[in-house]
Amino acid sequence: MNREEQLRRLSDPSALWDILVIGGGATGLATALDAATRGYRTALVEQADFCEGTSSKSTKLIHGGVRYLRNGEIGLVRESLRERGRLLRNAPGLVEPMPFVVPAYRFYERFFYGTGLALYDRLAGDLGIGRTEHPGRSAVLERLPNLRRRGLRGGTLYWDGQFDDAALALAMARTAASQGAALLNHARVVGLVKEGGRVKGAEVRTRFDGREFPVRAKVVVNATGVFTDEIRNFDDGQAAPVVRVSQGIHLVLERRFLGGDTAAMIPKTEDGRVLFLIPWKNRLLLGTTDTDGVETALNPRPLAEEIDYLVRHAALYLEEAPSHGDIRAVFAGLRPLASPPKTGAGSRSTASLSRSHCLFTSDSGLVTMTGGKWTTCRQMGQDAVDRAAEVGGLEVRPSGTADLSLLVPPVSVPVDPLDPELPFYGGSDIDRAVREDMALTLDDVMSRRTRASFLDEAAAVRCAPAVAARMAELLGKDSDWIRDELESFSASLVVGGRTPDAPRATSD
Ligand SMILES: Cc1cc2nc3c(=O)[nH]c(=O)nc-3n(C[C@H](O)[C@H](O)[C@H](O)COP(=O)(O)OP(=O)(O)OC[C@H]3O[C@@H](n4cnc5c(N)ncnc54)[C@H](O)[C@@H]3O)c2cc1C
User: Fold this and answer.
1) Which residue has its alpha carbon closest to ligand 1 atom 1?
2) What is the spatial distance between Cα 89 and Cα 127, in angstroms, rounded to a whole number?
3) Residue 227, pLDDT above cutoff 90
4) Which of 78-82, 208-212, 415-419, 441-445 is predicted least confidently?
């Protein structure tokens, strides 16, 4: 994907697209991919980087959602397990099976979780990954050597999928581009184009040079996650809100705080939340939280109390507990929770396609897809394109994504490591990021083309000057650009390479 070429195609005043997608997270990319593989002329614009919003800050699970079983949401779990199976098949190397242990500290827990997870296996059917087992105490400790021993009776072992969310997003963007879609990052929709009261495109402004141009399309899909209502307001100032926001954060720790290659799932903490401890790229993810009432932002800050909550809960389940000083990185994301209005003010609230995602069509034809999760994004894309084709009067063509293999990136050449603590490489990874994957800022490379800042902020700070210098060469930028990029990258970090006793987090 060459950015100049994408910009040229999108800003061509004579172009009329079949479908324009606003938003380059999981939902928007899945929609663009589905539309392009059906042969529709497809365009997508993303205000920041691909996947810079919620989609890069997930727990990194492609899962059926064991917790939904507890709520009796069988349909949702079945749909998610089906999509999990498809992703494992269509994106091998990007989505991998991972064993999880639910530790049992009370005598009935093994039976209780064992029964639920046997149902989970059955719902997965032919797309199952591995059978649920019931390891005893010592087998659990072999897999999770740092798990709290006192009172441990054994556990239940089940399988789910794990992935690198930003890498999967890039693979979807690359595949959509290979099918003819035009995709542009760092290009924001600042208004909608209307003709005869119908939405027929969007006004787009590029982020760094402020170029503005209209992109005309037969139908527009709003896939902007927690910003959904902002776009709906461009269409109709009276549109009722359809999204609620809830923040979740993860701490990144050294892997030894769990040990082994198995993840742990605590289905019910003292306050009823689910807690995951998951090995990821030689680190350990600990999450997540569920905090209402936070402000909507592209890159939200973790709250001090969220960090404290996770550190406190880790101590309840681990022999050697991490302290604040052990935190290598923190990332926060906002869940776009679909919350359909009871009476749609100027907006037709149509079928809630499952408990997880919702599709709306406004009176002027703006199609909005929201809610859902990473795991079900392919289905969301398919549903959004079915609706868009109807609204835009496009020729009916079936979706082809259920069996579509995604284009995975070539394996990195392991020379010139960015830092001994990080699995990324100077020559190959940075050059490919800029030349082929449209990275434009230092943060694009440090956070999403590599996951350096997600894995270890101190290491990311150490290698940032070399990365910025190489990017400046490739992009033709000067020393002022390098200085500005380093400043804004460093301001985006939470523990910031200072490895303090307590992370620098906001509590407002
Ligand atoms: C803490 C947390 C953990 C999660 N873990 C999991 C998990 O393990 N597995 C799972 O399946 N799901 C998980 N989810 C859910 C999943 O991450 C989200 O459902 C999904 O990423 C939402 O994708 P999206 O594309 O709708 O939103 P986003 O990723 O936020 O994408 C929307 C995009 O629209 C862009 N945009 C907004 N306004 C404009 C504009 N005016 N012009 C152009 N672009 C615009 C934004 O910049 C953004 O990139 C998790 C969510 C959270 C918060």
Assistant:
1) 248
2) 9
3) yes
4) 415-419
| Statement: residue 502 has pLDDT above 80 | no
Residue reference for tokens 């994504």: 401
pLDDT at 350: 29
Ligand 1 touching residue 27 (CB < 6 A): yes
Whether the CB-CB separation of 213 and 201 falls below 8 Å is answered with no
Asked if domains 3-54+167-242+339-392 and 412-508 share a fold, the reply is no
Our CA angle for 470, 475, 477, nearest 5°, is 85
Q: Tell me which amino acid residue 387 is.
A: R
Domain residue extents for the chain? 3-54+167-242+339-392, 101-161+245-335, 412-508
Nearest-angstrom CA–CA distance, 468 and 481: 9
Q: Are the C-beta atoms of residues 274 and 290 closer than 8 Å to each other? A: no
Tokens of 161: 């999928």
* Residue 342: per-residue pLDDT: 61
Q: Look-up: residue for tokens 């549903």?
A: 383
Q: Is 185 exposed, middle or buried (0-12, 13-18, 19+ CB in 10 A)?
A: buried
Which class does domain 412-508 fall in?
A: mainly alpha
Span from the CA of 193 to the centroid of ligand 1 (angstroms)? 25
Please tell me the least confidently modeled range out of 38-52, 57-71, 223-237, 290-304: 57-71
What does the pLDDT read at residue 262?
A: 98
User: How far, in Å, is the centroid of ligand 1 from the Cα of 26?
Assistant: 6
> How many angstroms does the Cα of residue 55 sit away from the middle of ligand 1?
4
- Residue 333 belongs to what H/E stretch? strand 329-338
pLDDT tens digits, one per residue of 331-384: 999 999 988 776 443 444 323 334 579 999 999 999 999 999 999 999 999 999
Nearest atom in ligand 1 to 55's CA: 21
Q: Is 279 in the pocket of ligand 1 (CB under 6 A)?
A: no
Q: Cβ-count burial of 481 within 10 angstroms (0-12 exposed, 13-18 middle, 19+ buried)?
A: middle
64 lines ligand 1 (CB under 6 A): no
From the CB of 202, is ligand 1 less than 6 Å away?
no
Q: How big is the chain by its Cα radius of gyration, in Å? A: 23
- DSSP assignments along 92-139, one per residue: BTTEEEEEEEEEE-STTHHHHHHHHHHHHHHHHGGG--S--B--BHHH
| Residue-wise pLDDT tens digits, 40-97 | 999 999 999 999 999 999 999 999 988 888 778 888 899 999 999 999 999 999 999 9
Q: Give the CATH fold of the 3-54+167-242+339-392 domain.
A: FAD/NAD(P)-binding domain (3.50.50)
Q: Which amino acid is at 117?
A: L
Q: Which CATH class is domain 101-161+245-335?
A: alpha beta
